[in-house]
């Protein structure tokens, strides 16, 4: 898969609002469950089904349904008469400058092969998990088609991030057959505003600044490495590595030591020629743990480091036991499962010494990242809010080539 293009701004939980018509009665319940503490609101301006008429399918109707004090819905009926064993899915996000420009997500994946073999493709894993929980009829293994799909879809604010800068966005979704003929395609137009006059003014000013310099406000956490007792994690070599930038890890810091409930034996940054710098940590956790609060936060450096987009806190034991629908947590957990399975096992944890090698793996990063300095904070806390372990990773992103790097700066 082509993986991601992350340029700026917003982490839209793209597919979490998708429901089949049979499931549409649960939409009000989902809407009521959303997190109401977010400092912004967004308005869906319109949905458009594009590229019609389709050659290999029939669009029976495509309606935008407005609802008072609830998300605007896209109500679609598509008849697919033939059996399909190959479906190419494209998901792209655009941000509006003077015109809409590609931003954040540029994902392409052949769905039938993916569902059958489940390769390690983090963003696809995240979207597929969302499909499984919200539209299981579409996430079933191939063959597909030979039926009429009645779908109700909306951008669900309940599952969007805690903070999103203001601006106008467009989400493109497309399904393509093997001969490159479109089965269905849609565009969704969204406007985001901060709550309150001052907040909106601040974010509008920030969005103009972002338009000038291209600051990233989303960084997916890429946890790579295995415990020292086992072989080092090796990324899937099939992932596209033709990225127009370089990442340099400046340093790792273990912060808050000495810890009250654990013993940090060592915390080393190891530089490697032509490879990412790694953090090598040995941490003794003497007690048995059935509650571990994990927090992950990302920052971008202006004159100082400022919080940007990711501000995730999740109690790990309960999450692994019940696997609730929490998209960002699902994404992080899937990465942990595939790269550090010893940490991603169900509780109880502790009563052992953890020897971990970890690095920010460029292999899992997007196709494009704007230049700048970043900081990633990770912390694990016990039930009484006592820190078990905490670290900061500092890194910089430079575009390949002198001119490109100067333009980004």
From TrEMBL:
InterPro entries linked to this entry: DUF1091
One Pfam family here: DUF1091
SMART domains xref list: DM8
Keyword entries, A-Z: Signal
Cell cycle found in the keyword field: no
Signal peptide: 1-20
Protein name: MD-2-related lipid-recognition domain-containing protein
Species assigned in the record: Anopheles minimus
Lineage: Eukaryota, Metazoa, Ecdysozoa, Arthropoda, Hexapoda
């Amino acid at each position: 898969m082509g993986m991601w293009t992350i340029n700026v701004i917003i982490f839209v939980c793209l597919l979490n609002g998708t429901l089949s018509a049979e499931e549409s009665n649960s939409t009000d319940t989902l809407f009521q469950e959303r997190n109401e503490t977010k400092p912004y609101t967004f308005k869906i301006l319109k949905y458009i089904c594009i590229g019609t008429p389709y050659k290999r399918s029939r669009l029976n109707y495509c309606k935008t349904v407005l609802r008072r004090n609830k998300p605007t819905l896209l109500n679609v009926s598509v008849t697919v008469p033939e059996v399909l064993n190959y479906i190419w899915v494209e998901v792209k996000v655009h941000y509006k400058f003077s015109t809409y420009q590609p931003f954040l997500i540029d994902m392409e994946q052949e769905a039938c092969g993916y569902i059958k073999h489940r390769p390690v493709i983090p963003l696809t894993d995240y979207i597929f998990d969302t499909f499984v929980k919200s539209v299981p009829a579409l996430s079933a293994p191939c063959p597909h088609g030979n039926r009429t799909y009645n779908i109700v879809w909306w951008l669900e604010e309940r599952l969007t991030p805690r903070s999103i800068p203001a601006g106008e966005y467009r989400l493109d979704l497309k399904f393509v057959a093997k001969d490159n003929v479109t089965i269905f395609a849609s565009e969704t137009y969204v406007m985001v505003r901060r709550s309150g006059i001052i907040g909106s003014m601040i974010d509008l000013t920030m969005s103009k600044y972002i338009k000038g310099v291209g600051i990233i406000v989303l960084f997916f956490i890429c946890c790579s490495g295995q415990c020292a007792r086992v072989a080092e994690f090796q990324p899937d070599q099939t992932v596209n590595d033709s990225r127009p930038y370089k990442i340099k890890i400046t340093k790792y810091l273990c912060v808050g030591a000495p810890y009250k409930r654990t013993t940090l034996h060592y915390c080393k940054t190891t530089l490697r020629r032509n490879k990412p710098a790694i953090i090598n940590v040995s941490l003794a956790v003497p007690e048995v743990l059935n509650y571990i609060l994990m927090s992950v936060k990302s920052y971008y450096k202006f004159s100082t480091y400022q919080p940007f987009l990711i501000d995730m806190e999740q109690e790990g034991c309960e999450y692994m036991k019940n696997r609730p629908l929490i998209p960002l947590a699902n994404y992080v957990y899937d990465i942990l499962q595939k790269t550090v399975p010893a940490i991603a096992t169900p509780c109880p944890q502790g009563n052992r010494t953890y020897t971990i090698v970890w690095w920010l793996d460029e292999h899992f990063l997007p196709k494009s990242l704007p230049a700048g300095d970043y900081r990633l904070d990770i912390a694990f806390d016990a039930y009484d809010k006592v820190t078990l372990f905490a670290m900061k990773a500092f890194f910089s992103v430079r575009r390949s080539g002198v001119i490109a790097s100067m333009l980004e700066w």
